[in-house]
Amino acid sequence: MDFDTLRVYYQRFFPYQDVFLWLNHDRTPQADFLDREIAFTIENAYVRYQSYMNADAFKADVLRLMPTRFEYGPVYSANPRQRKMLPKGACVPVKKEFCLDIDLSDYNSVRTCCTDTAVCNKCWKFATIAIEILNVALREDFGFQNLLWVFSGRRGVHCWVSDAAALTLDEAQRSSIAAYLQVLGTSTQGKLVNLPRPFHPHIARSFGILKSHFKQVVLEEQDPWRSADQAEELLKRLQPADLVARLRSKWGSKEIPSSQRWADIDTETRQLPVSSGSRNSVGDAVLAAKQDIIFEYLYPRLDAAVSRGLNHLLKSPFVVHPSTGKICVALDLKKLDEFDIDAVPRYDAIVKELDATNDITKTSLRDYTEYFRHHVQETLPKKRAADTLDF
Amino acid sequence: MFRQKKRAIEAVDGEVGRHIDYPYRMNLYTAPPLDEITQDEFEQWGLDRLRVLQEIDNALTTKVGDLEKTVRPTIQKFLPLSLGSKRNSDKERKKDHYSHFILRLAFCRSEELRKKFVRLETELFKLRFATDDFKDRNEFLESLEFNWEIASPDEVDRLRSQLLAASGRNTDVADTYYKVDFTQVPYLVESRRVFLKGGKAYVPETLQLTLLTTEYSKLLDESLIKTARAIPRLDEEQRLIPILENLAEKMIWQETSAEEIGHTDTIRANMIDGLAAQKHFPLCMLTMQRKLKTDHVAKYTARRQYGLFLKGIGMGVEDALVYWRSNFAPRIADDKFDKEYRYNIRYLYGLEGSRRNQRPFNCIQIINGDQPRDREESHGCPYKYLAPQALEEKLQSMGITDKQSLSEIRSYNESSLYHLSCTKVYELTHPNDKTVYSERIMTPQAYFQRSWNHAKETPSK
């Protein structure tokens, strides 16, 4: 990282005032910002329990410390800077946004385009679908309205829910939302997908969304079962045994596009002899297996620890990611389909843009900060009539 | 909140009193008791309920499969609550009612105690609800008047297909749905057993128990806070507060083993090796005693665990200093001992630093605490950290060789019931101790105490 350039970024671009309003949930400073923990990572040190009077004081300290990243934690019952002077139990976390964290490296078993920390526009679609599913669940099921989605700088997204009702959730309640949204089990539990039928309304709605993307995103773009070896992964998830045997002999060791294999499942199912159990029950079993596969390959994978903890820290929007140099921009869901992960503004690139034009409103970061400003203004409490002279 | 008839009754022991009638077996404890009871009853009833709660706590901590079956004997003994006709059970219901309020007084004073009390009382409530008979339970439910919003028939009709899907069934089961904030029923949300819309959970009548227990925990938590505020005005410093403090202490330290109370023998430094050889020490303490004797090593956690155990069985601080000094030698020279260890040992006795009187660890703390990471560390619970093969060798060296006993111990360990293994080892190594103990060994001190008392009662020939 080039610290001189980074300093220009944190001096000129980072939206301190809007971040203040966003964390403070009001125009005049209140506990939500004043007693909010801000934590800095400075080279190898981790400085916790910082808090500020206002956006200016916060900015001054960022420029003084030049952190490689910083994070926001909970609002405490007293100023976290004074926690050591207070009696035990007087300074405890009381409020925090409800957060979600999705990381594409959790999709490694189902993506073929990239591995580990790499990410491309093909696998970014997993994140897009995750956002679509979680966004509707948080809004319709839980009744939350104040949601901010943020690119996490490398290969994931964060969601911050700032409704008043979300801020005061306790850990059991946070866990319950995370568990409600977490559909896939862990591989140590054996079966990854274990969904009772009929589907719960959230599952049924999610399935509709997944199904509409499955053909393009999984079958065509990821094409996860092309080789004969890969096809075993598909066969492993199917039943009954005689169907699996028919498919295996039909496919042999040829390379076949995944979409063709997927279609073959239905063709072969129809040709199963009537004697092998009642036709309906075989059809149901195959259908259920296919549904499970769709869930396993596309349903959002959450890092639930981030959601559960009241005192879990999460990286600030608009921080520069220390290893990619990309800015953790806020995502406008209306334009999510146009989002290009390779074109996310880098701090050094926009500083160059500024040098060239000398006009801060003309850099490629502008759209993102404008969206954030707009979002924050929308979600602040409406000004009282007296303030606006509007009788 | 629930129907409650009060009636004046005939003189009892020459006194006229107001009696609360107990129409139902279950109680939400919204009304405090009004009768007088003796100070002895006050203490005894509190202790009895505490035993039940601790048994539940132990069972939850060690993750036994069937909670009800595990705690049933303790409940039967200390806090029975019979089904059916209330005529025979008024006494039991009264004790249940009073003991609940006695423990409220004892456990309201800190956040930690309140949380624990609410959690355990809620478990007890659930257990009783599950074992209540159908008719009694329904009458009890009907007597409650919670302000649960009921979804209108129109709304239920409109949402029927979703409500049905959320119930996990294909056929209609409920017509009554309660509409509550999803935050009130996290258990139902996380398992996706309710339909959610706009932050409201639609709870079918069949899942009423969950609603009820959440409501109960909430009520209890609120009343505990109120009780805590009221306590300073009680003016009971002399009479009840000491009893209450004693109860609260016991809740924290889990020291109710009857055989521990009243131990006054003094253990001297030069007795330790002999005591260990005479099978008075549980395996954990034996391990630390041997490590210290042969390698002259006891790392930080072992010093605390073993040092507090020695204190707990009756070793004074002067003897402790002698014992540690002689066992650390020659690896640790006298002046180094004075500089680095003297303070720590005196600290365990509350003579240095914060001067807090430290209590010995109980088995739950040892089992849940950290275990040795290398061969130099000797603390922890050997039944938990030793590999089955290594443990069997140890047990064989203690004279436990028959296959059946070894496999019994192994199966306890596999179910994480380490204190049962330890209790079993005690029985096997003390075949002549015919005392019937009501409790399993839950502290290393209890193990020592049983063995010590037994040895005292059977004079060597």
From TrEMBL, chain A:
<dbReference type="GO" id="GO:0046872">
    <property type="term" value="F:metal ion binding"/>
</dbReference>
<keyword id="KW-0235">DNA replication</keyword>
<dbReference type="GO" id="GO:0006269">
    <property type="term" value="P:DNA replication, synthesis of primer"/>
</dbReference>
<keyword id="KW-0240">DNA-directed RNA polymerase</keyword>
<keyword id="KW-0639">Primosome</keyword>
<keyword id="KW-0479">Metal-binding</keyword>
<dbReference type="InterPro" id="IPR014052">
    <property type="entry name" value="DNA_primase_ssu_euk/arc"/>
</dbReference>
<dbReference type="GO" id="GO:0005658">
    <property type="term" value="C:alpha DNA polymerase:primase complex"/>
</dbReference>
<dbReference type="Pfam" id="PF01896">
    <property type="entry name" value="DNA_primase_S"/>
</dbReference>
<keyword id="KW-0808">Transferase</keyword>
<keyword id="KW-0804">Transcription</keyword>
<dbReference type="InterPro" id="IPR002755">
    <property type="entry name" value="DNA_primase_S"/>
</dbReference>
<keyword id="KW-0862">Zinc</keyword>
<keyword id="KW-0548">Nucleotidyltransferase</keyword>
<comment type="similarity">
    <text>Belongs to the eukaryotic-type primase small subunit family.</text>
</comment>
<dbReference type="GO" id="GO:0003899">
    <property type="term" value="F:DNA-directed RNA polymerase activity"/>
</dbReference>
<protein>
    <recommendedName>
        <fullName>DNA primase</fullName>
        <ecNumber>2.7.7.-</ecNumber>
    </recommendedName>
</protein>
UniProtKB/TrEMBL annotation, chain B:
<comment type="similarity">
    <text>Belongs to the eukaryotic-type primase large subunit family.</text>
</comment>
<feature type="binding site">
    <location>
        <position position="284"/>
    </location>
    <ligand>
        <name>[4Fe-4S] cluster</name>
    </ligand>
</feature>
<dbReference type="GO" id="GO:0006270">
    <property type="term" value="P:DNA replication initiation"/>
</dbReference>
<dbReference type="GO" id="GO:0006269">
    <property type="term" value="P:DNA replication, synthesis of primer"/>
</dbReference>
<keyword id="KW-0004">4Fe-4S</keyword>
<dbReference type="GO" id="GO:0003677">
    <property type="term" value="F:DNA binding"/>
</dbReference>
<dbReference type="Pfam" id="PF04104">
    <property type="entry name" value="DNA_primase_lrg"/>
</dbReference>
<keyword id="KW-0639">Primosome</keyword>
<dbReference type="Pfam" id="PF26466">
    <property type="entry name" value="DNA_primase_lrg_N"/>
</dbReference>
<feature type="domain" description="DNA primase large subunit C-terminal">
    <location>
        <begin position="277"/>
        <end position="448"/>
    </location>
</feature>
<keyword id="KW-0479">Metal-binding</keyword>
<dbReference type="GO" id="GO:0005658">
    <property type="term" value="C:alpha DNA polymerase:primase complex"/>
</dbReference>
<dbReference type="InterPro" id="IPR016558">
    <property type="entry name" value="DNA_primase_lsu_euk"/>
</dbReference>
<feature type="binding site">
    <location>
        <position position="422"/>
    </location>
    <ligand>
        <name>[4Fe-4S] cluster</name>
    </ligand>
</feature>
<dbReference type="InterPro" id="IPR007238">
    <property type="entry name" value="DNA_primase_lsu_euk/arc"/>
</dbReference>
<comment type="function">
    <text>DNA primase is the polymerase that synthesizes small RNA primers for the Okazaki fragments made during discontinuous DNA replication.</text>
</comment>
<keyword id="KW-0238">DNA-binding</keyword>
<dbReference type="GO" id="GO:0051539">
    <property type="term" value="F:4 iron, 4 sulfur cluster binding"/>
</dbReference>
<feature type="binding site">
    <location>
        <position position="381"/>
    </location>
    <ligand>
        <name>[4Fe-4S] cluster</name>
    </ligand>
</feature>
<keyword id="KW-0411">Iron-sulfur</keyword>
<keyword id="KW-0408">Iron</keyword>
<protein>
    <recommendedName>
        <fullName>DNA primase large subunit</fullName>
    </recommendedName>
</protein>
